[in-house]
Amino acid sequence: MTANADAIYLKQMELGPMQNFVYLIGDPVTRECVVVDPAWEINAILDTAQADGMTLTGALVTHTHQDHVGGSLESWGMPGRIPGVEELLDKIRAKVYVHKAEREFLRGFGSDLMRVDGNDTLAVGRLTLTFLHTPGHTPGSQCFLVDGRLVSGDTLFIGSCGRTDLPGSDPAEMYYSLTQRLAALPDDTVLLPGHNYGGPRSTIGAEKRGNPCMRFTALGEFLRVMGGGLPGLH
After folding, report:
1. Is the pLDDT assigned to residue 234 strictly greater than 70?
2. Is the pTM of this model over 0.70?
3. Which residues of 68-99 are buried (b: 16+ CB within 10 A; e: fewer)?
C-alpha cells in the first residue's frame, strides 16, 4: 500500500497545549476536505483550509474527549471550555462523523451528526475513507484509513498507545485493537497519531517492530503492564 502524495490533500497541524494533531484531509482535484478532531483553534483550521482553496464539508471524530472535540472542562475539575465541534458548526455547515458508541457524548447537533461503525466508508471527493473501530482508550475510539495512511487518534501513538485507566477505557479491547486490528494493516501504512508524543508520523511496520505496546504476544501479559494505563498518555 503505497501512499500517493499527488492523490491526497493532507495537512497536519499541532494545536493546543496538549500537543494535539488536527488533520485536514481531502481531494486536491475536487477541493473538498474534512477535518479530523477539530479543537483548540477553530479559526486556524478554517483559515488553513481557505488559504489552500479547500472547502470543508465534514468533521471526523476519533473519540469524544474534550481535547479532541471541545467542550466544558467541568468534568476535568477545571474552569472554562475548549473550542471544538460546536464552534466549528457555528461558522460552517458540516457533517460530524462519530462512532455510534459515543453518539451520546455529542448532543445538540441534530441532523449534522452522523453515527458510523467499523468498516463504514465515506467519499471525500474522489477519495474513499474507511472507519476502523478501535476501542480501548474509549468505547467508540476509531481510526481513519485513507490512501495508505492511518489517522490513529489516541489509539496508537509513536512508541506508545493511549491511556486505558480512564472512564470508559478497556485495556483488553486496547490489546486487540493494537495487536489484531491495527497490526493487520500493511507494514508500509503511514501512521498519523492524535498527539505529538513521539513525532509527527511513523509506519505500522516500524511500530510493530519498536513500539512495546504492539509487541505483547498474550493478553495477560498486556494486562499486567497496561491494566492501570500508562501515566502521562492521553
Report:
1. no
2. yes
3. bbbbeeeeeeeeeebbbbbbbbeeeebbbbbb
